[in-house]
Amino acid sequence: MTGAEAETPAPLGLLAELTHRCPLRCPYCSNPLELERRSDELDTATWTRVLSEAAALGVLQVHLSGGEPTARRDLEALVAHCADLGLYSNLITAGVNLPPARLAALAEAGLDHVQLSLQGPEAAGNDRIAGLPGAFHQKLALAGEVRALGLPLTVNCVVHRHNIARLQEVIDLALALGAHRLEIAHAQYYGWALRNRAALMPRRAQVEAAMATLERARTAQAGRLVIDAVVPDYYARLPKPCMGGWGRRSLNVTPSGRVLPCHAAETIPGLTFDNVRSRPLAEIWYQGAAFAAFRGTDWMVEPCRSCERREIDWGGCRCQALALTGRAENADPACHKSRHHAALLELADAESEAEAQGETGTAFVYRGFATPQK
Ligand code: SF4
Ligand code: FES
Q1: What is the 320 CA–ligand 2 centroid distance (Å)?
Q2: pLDDT for 315-342, tens place per residue?
Q3: Where in the chain is the domain with CATH 3.20.20.70?
Q4: Binding site membership of 242 for ligand 2 (Cβ less than 6 Å)
Q5: What residue's CA is closest to ligand 1, atom 7?
Q6: Could you tell me the pTM of the whole model?
Q7: Gene3D superfamilies, alphabetically (predicted)?
Q8: Of the bound ligands, which one is closest to the alpha carbon of residue 313?
Q9: What's the topology of domain 10-230?
Q10: Is the ipTM of this complex over 0.90?
């Protein structure tokens, strides 16, 4: 191991994007607009090898994700392999098309945790965002099955202009479903969410009211429900350490095997991504060009380069910096020190009001493949 490698921490988490296939069509999806096809997906043997390599590398948690990971028929085998390796497995699911017998088989195989997405606290709103009639009732049934099996349940709700006013109902529903944790995730504008940004952006007053609701709920539900939530980037003063810092804590493997430092890294021009089909995971983590590109602080420009928070937030999000300032090295414009910060706030205000002002182009573009998958 070289000196630079010795200074690089081992990753703790692996996001295994098993497939981009999904029965839902959420317009806030952070998957790329160009979805990877079933015919390009890694096979079972390659995924099990990747999981073994991840465990050897130091990974502790595997998030089985997608798309919808239950679309893979080999999910039980992959969960069992995680259990054999001592990896904590978290199933990130939309909760539809998952019959009780299959969930029981996954639990039997050693599944540790289920994270269930909700698009809203009632059927009509949930199913409109999900783009799938009947999804809400399937999700509620699945939550009951998860709890009946004794598995810990996290409810995840991505919030935006169309559901942010209903946060209290989301909290009440998470409690009723027996969730241990509720993640309130503001839409992050990559992939399909970026395409739909003007249709999703919440208004400033909505965000302020939501943060107050969350604060009250955190106090009222302390000891019963853990509530995770942060101020959305477009209304923040300081950025978040995206991914816990580039190439510091976690890595993503796409359905076809490309290894990414974050889910939107492929939007950054000039980066090249290794594939698990042709290079061992440890080598990719420690020596891969894409991971080296923004690891640490050497790549930073001002104001990050001389900022006292540079090893706290690692300059925020590279993909957001690129999307909004044209350069991935720039400070994330969520930061008040960025010269693009004021423009970001103006953009958020303008887009959140676009619909109210009758502007066209604020209808959803639902996620989907260019041609249907078999
Ligand atoms: Fe973070 Fe850079 Fe802003 Fe400092 S200047 S707070 S390092 S984004
Ligand atoms: Fe790529 Fe934040 S999503 S660094």
Answers
A1: 7
A2: 999 999 999 999 999 999 999 999 999 9
A3: 10-230
A4: yes
A5: 310
A6: 0.93
A7: Aldolase class I
A8: 1
A9: TIM Barrel (3.20.20)
A10: yes
